[in-house]
Every structure is written in C-alpha cells, then in structure tokens.
Write a structure and sequence with these properties.
The protein has 367 residues and is an alpha/beta fold. The protein has two domains: 120 residues, Up-down Bundle (Four Helix Bundle (Hemerythrin (Met), subunit A)); 233 residues, Rossmann fold (3-Layer(aba) Sandwich). It is built from twelve helices and 16 strands. α1 runs parallel beside α3. The protein starts with 11 loop residues before the first strand and ends in a 6-residue tail after the last helix. The N terminus is likely disordered. The structure holds 5-S-methyl-1-O-phosphono-5-thio-D-ribulose. Its EC number is 5.3.1.23.
Length: 367
C-alpha cells in the first residue's frame, strides 16, 4: 500500500475549490482519494460511505452545501433544494442535519444582506471543521485525565487497557476523533496504554480503520472479534471503554454503531467504566428517548452476507459467508440507554449522562 500518511492529514481537504476526501472504503489496503465537485458527489460519498463517521459526515455535508451554492451560482432557493438532498443522505448521525441546517441559516441571513453565497458557504464549512479540530483536542485532554487516573493505579509496567468500538478517530472527526482523541493524547503524554479494537461487523470499521489509524500512530492495540469484549472484562483485562456516538439525546441516550449497547451491558455487569466521547454537534436536544426517537439506519443485507477484504491476487474483493438462500437484516446502529453510560466526554468537560448534567453544561444548546 502507498503509505504516505502523515500526522497533518485530515479525512478531507480543499483543492482548487473542490473537496478531496480519503476513500475510506479502500482502507487499510489502499490509500486513495476522491474529488467531490458537486453536491450530488457529496451526497453519494456520504451514502456509499466513501466518507463516514458522524463528524466527517457533517463536514462533507457542509462542504456539499458550498458546492450546491456554487452549482446554483449563488441562488438561495436552488441551493436549498440541492442541500435538502444532502440532508437525507444518511438518517442516524445528527451532525449531517445539524451542519446542513447551520449552513442554510447562515446563507439565508447572507442572502438578505446580498452577500456572495458561495463565499459565505465556504467560509462557514471551513469554520465547522476548524471548530472540530479544537473540539477534538479538548475531548482528548478531558478524556486523557481519566486514563491518567487509571494509569496511577496500575502496577508498574502494566498498560491501561481501553476497549473501543467502530471508528471514532481522525477518519471520523477532524482532527483527532472523539473516542480516540483521549488515546492520542495519552500516547502524546507517554502513558502506557493498549487498545482492544472491536472488529465491528458487518463493515469492519474497527479492523479496517481503527486498527489502521492506531498502527499509523504506533499505539499498541489488538484486534478482537466483536463478541470477545465481555470475556475480556470478566478476566479484568479492560480498564475502560470509550466509544463515539452519532446522536445523543438530551437525557444522555447514545446511538452508536451496532453492538455498542451489548458492550455497555457487559461493562455495566463487570463494573468497567463506559464513557462516550462527543463534540456538542452530536447532541440532539430535541429528543429525550433514544430508543423511541432515533431513526436507526437499515443498510443493505449484502454487508452481512458478504465480507470485503484483500484477496490473494492483491485486489480488494468480496466473499459470501452465508448460504445462497439466506437473507439478512442489517441495522447500522443501536441505542445505549443513559443508565449504562458512566459519563460523556465533551469539548467542554465531562458530564453525566442525564438531563440535569447535560443541560448544566450545554444550556445554550437547549431549544
Ligand atoms: O456507519 P459509520 O461508520 O458512519 O458509523 C460511525 C460510528 O458509529 C462512529 O462510532 C461514530 O460516528 C461516532 S464517532 C464520530
């Protein structure tokens, strides 16, 4: 593989006015990019998971609105029409809707002032990703304090073992991710850490993306089958779980990649702290009951019936893992009830997963 990655890379960047994104469907075997020139390109990249992860979906959606404004030659009505399509690209990660709505609100004001909508949209999309950079650095610092406290209790030479699910690293939110931000910070501070990486069937974001990210940063990690975490917890081999989230309600219920809930249950049963890391753009303060109110994405059955990987001939290919006549159900996310969440690691600090604590820290976001 062409390994030209360096620490200053992001999951996307601007080039000649277009958005270049890392094609995450090809990682870890091939580091290739795609150039998004139109709002339809942005919608497709989100839909087919060329880009994924709540934060990056929001960023690409925001740049998609900029591309829509450019295609519309600055016409607000046409920009809104194209942006409405981007907004529907995936249902669960609220950052997508949040980013499109934020851009449209800014464009409406700008149109009233007769400003150049293309310029304004670009500036606002850049502002969102700049905010994410600062946010993820702060999430890293607050989350690292938890790791540091555990490190002090460990016998000399023993690492702090952290379990994570899916990919919530820099491929998911610029520029340090959410769940992986405290891990990167701990590594920077020279703490002895080791990460258990859930493979995260069916799309294997853990095996393909998290293992790759951690490997690039030389952070010790071990890939495990999704069902292994519970046993590791019973053996006392998990000190802390940190996962990301795609939508968190005002009462602290957390939607994240399918399988997160089962890990939270196992953590609860074994007294292992279970933290969720998120930038505030991932709160959906309009809703309270995650199970009843969060739309869970249903994806193609083929993602369960087939597995993608590197073939003997060096090409990326798919193999079927179930009988030809078998059908499958593929929910992309599940909801972890707030009672199973030890705390929420945010850019403003760590709060409890309940309405009082969340609204205490994020009063300005309550509608
Ligand atoms: O379907 P994906 O790969 O977009 O799902 C991503 C996750 O579930 C991440 O854990 C999540 O986005 C939280 S981190 C931004």
């Amino acid at each position: 593989m062409n390994s030209t990655y360096n620490q200053s890379w992001k999951a996307f960047w601007l080039e000649d006015g277009n958005l270049v994104v890392i094609d995450q469907t090809q990682l870890p075997f091939s580091l290739v990019t795609k150039t998004l020139k139109t709002s339809a390109d942005a919608t497709l990249a989100i839909k087919d998971m060329t880009v994924r992860g709540a934060g990056v979906i929001g960023n690409v959606a925001a740049f998609g609105v900029y591309l829509a404004a450019r295609e519309s030659k600055g016409d607000l009505a046409k920009t809104k029409e194209l942006s409405a399509v981007i907004r529907l690209a995936r249902p669960t990660a609220v950052n997508l809707m949040w980013a499109v709505d934020r851009l449209i609100a800014v464009l409406e004001k700008a149109a009233a002032q007769k400003l150049d909508l293309v310029e304004v949209a670009l500036k606002e999309a850049i502002a969102i990703s700049d905010e994410d950079v600062i946010g993820t650095r702060n999430i890293g610092k607050y989350g690292c304090e938890l790791i540091e406290a555990i490190a002090k209790t460990k016998p000399k030479g023993e690492p702090v073992n952290i379990l994570t699910h899916c990919n919530a690293g820099w491929l998911a939110i610029v520029d340090r991710g959410s769940a992986l931000a405290p891990i990167y910070e701990a590594s920077d501070r020279g703490l002895n850490i080791h990460v258990w990486v859930d493979e995260t069937r069916p799309r294997n974001q853990g095996a393909n993306l998290t293992a790759w990210e951690l490997g690039q940063s030389k952070i010790p990690h071990t890939l495990i089958a999704d069902n292994t975490g519970g046993l590791l917890m019973q053996y006392g081999k998990v000190d802390l779980c940190i996962v990301g989230t795609d939508r968190t309600t005002r009462s602290g219920d957390v939607a994240n990649k399918i399988g997160t809930y089962l890990k939270a249950l196992a953590a609860f049963d074994n007294n292992v702290p279970f933290y969720v890391a998120l930038p505030s753009s991932t709160f959906d303060m309009q809703i309270s009951d995650g199970v009843k109110e969060i739309a869970i994405e249903t994806r193609s059955a083929d993602e369960v019936l087939y597995m993608q990987g590197l073939q003997a001939d060096g090409a990326i290919g798919k193999v079927r893992v179930a009988p030809l006549e078998t059908t499958a159900l593929n929910y992309g996310f599940d909801v972890t009830p707030a009672r199973l969440v030890t705390g929420l690691i945010t850019e403003r600090g760590i709060c409890e997963a309940n309405e009082t604590s969340i609204s205490g820290m994020f009063l300005d976001l309550i509608p």
